[in-house]
Amino acid sequence: MYGTRKELNQLMKRAFGREEKLAVLVWSRQDVMALAEDMTGVEADAILCAIGNIGLGDHQEEGVSVRTVYELLAGLRAETRMVAVPSDLLVRITETMRRALSAGDAQAWELVRHSFPSVNDALCDVAWLEKQLAA
């Protein structure tokens, strides 16, 4: 799971029973940023989002370690093709995608009681774009 403390509390209320025992491991932005001197806050947030969207079975089998963080950072820093897009167009597209994905995620939750990783990944991308546009 990934989000603010308030968002995570809401997700956990929906996903788990009141008396169900859980083990919760927490990665904070500061924990992630401490692993690489030159890591930006945006990179740390993207890594936290990726960690939060690792499937339950995957993290139980593989774990989430320092190596995981380094691999995610390397993937973020991989060279990508850049294109110029007017910021007002990008704002409109981002708002539309966030609303559509959030509505789809809510419907999916009611059907199967969990969020689909592809929806979570896309919501993380939208959150990243919104932060970039706000900067």
Task: Describe the 3D structure.
This protein has about 140 residues and is an all-alpha fold. The protein folds into two domains: about 1-80, no CATH class; about 80-135. The protein has helices at about 5-15, 30-35, 40-50, 55-60, 65-75, 85-110, 115-135. The mean pLDDT is about 80.
In short:
By secondary structure, the chain is mainly α. α3 packs across α5.
Q: Give the termini distance in whole angstroms.
A: 25 Å
Percent of residues in helical segments? Answer: 55-70%
* Main structural class: mainly alpha
SS summary, helix count: 7
How is the main sheet built?
Answer: none
Radius of gyration: 16 Å
How confident overall, as mean pLDDT? 80
Number of strands: 0
Low-confidence stretches: none
Order of helices and strands: HHHHHHH
Domain unit count = 2
Strand content: under 5%
What coarse outline follows from CA principal-axis ratios? globular
